[in-house]
Amino acid sequence: MRKLMVMLAVVAAPLLLMAACGEQEMSMAKEEHQQAASADSSAYRDLTPEEERVIVQKGTEMPFTGEYYQHFEDGTYHCRRCDAPLYNSTDKFQTSCGWPSFDDEIPGAVRRERDADGMRTEILCANCGAHLGHVFEGERLTDTNVRHCVNSVSLVFKPSEEGSSRAIGARDDGAEVADIPADAGGTRKAYFAGGCFWGVEHLFEQKEGVVSAVSGYMGGKVDEPTYRQVCSGRTGHVEAVEVEYDPATVSYEELAKYFFEIHDPTQDNGQGPDIGSQYLSVAFYGSDEEKETAERLIDVLRDKGYDIATMVLPNATFWPAEDYHQDYYEKKGSRPYCHAYTKRF
Ligand SMILES: [Zn+2]
Which of 20, 71, 102, 316 would you call most buried, defined as having the most Cβ atoms within 10 angstroms of its Cβ? Predict the structure, then answer.
């Protein structure tokens, strides 16, 4: 027994010493860094108390409250304190985590450090050391398999010159909004997301002039997503429905009006009991005309007192959902649990 104790002491002593040295080195490095950071701090912006709490004291803003959590415009996100460019909007993607998420950084702009909690990796502005948030790897949310989870308070957004908005999580692949696609039969396709696609698809199939409605996923960064992936709320996709219609019988405007009447466009965190970013309300557009129509209808509803949460975003690749999601209510012989027609126009 005594022998064992001695052995333990021999093994443990250097470990304790190492831990102590490590801490000392870390605090020295921090002091050096703070000195370096304060050297040219005259160029820094004055911080509000909340900015100070996050950027200097390494605090965290309340989830779902940040200015840039649901912000998707073309431009660059800079360091709130020193103005160094940190992230491009093309690397921003939608998550349900509650903070702005990026799957890549501007090269050399972000420094990584082991967080004080010993578990996570802290990210800091490489220029001034401002605390940004944390970086996570291996979540398989996007191609890069990296998520920079950043406090809005640490950032300031600067729009690009064009300043146009883009789809949720859409990459800058140069895709322009094309003219309304019409297939050989003269039908057109429109895309809507209004919560669980079973109900949206079911109700669009009842609409006169609709040739077919297909449940699928749209707007995110993951190719060929599965229902399970989308359910995680972290692919950037929403549950969407592809509505193929005959423009001689029904117009895009009539379909868009119907869309606003078969789901609750005022709910901003999902639809009915389905909460999460994959259930958000989106009217996708394939042309400037469709965009203007959707925006005009939202204005009409706002004038009527509805606080509309629906986003108007350009079409992205539509990924049809697994077969068992198609015609779900017909197969089950039941009715939608959270979608019903309500006259609003
Ligand atoms: Zn900075």
Answer: 102
Q: How far is CA 241 from CA 43, 207, 253, 316, in A?
A: 50, 14, 16, 12
pLDDT score, position 23: 39
Catalytic residue among 82, 97, 125, 196: 196
Task: Say what the pLDDT of residue 172 is.
Answer: 39
Q: What's the gap in Å between 287 CA and the centre of ligand 1?
A: 39
Residue 149 annotated in active site:
yes
SS3 11: helix
Ligand 1 centroid to residue 57 C-alpha, Å: 14
- Residue pair 149/101 in contact (Cβ under 8 Å)? The answer is yes
pLDDT number for residue 183: 52
User: Residue 177 corresponds to which tokens in the numbers above?
Assistant: 């909004």
Which ranges of the chain have pLDDT less than 50? 1-39, 162-182, 184
Give residue 311's pLDDT. Answer: 95
CA geometry: angle at 280 spanning 217 and 171, to 5°? 55
Is 125 annotated as catalytic? no
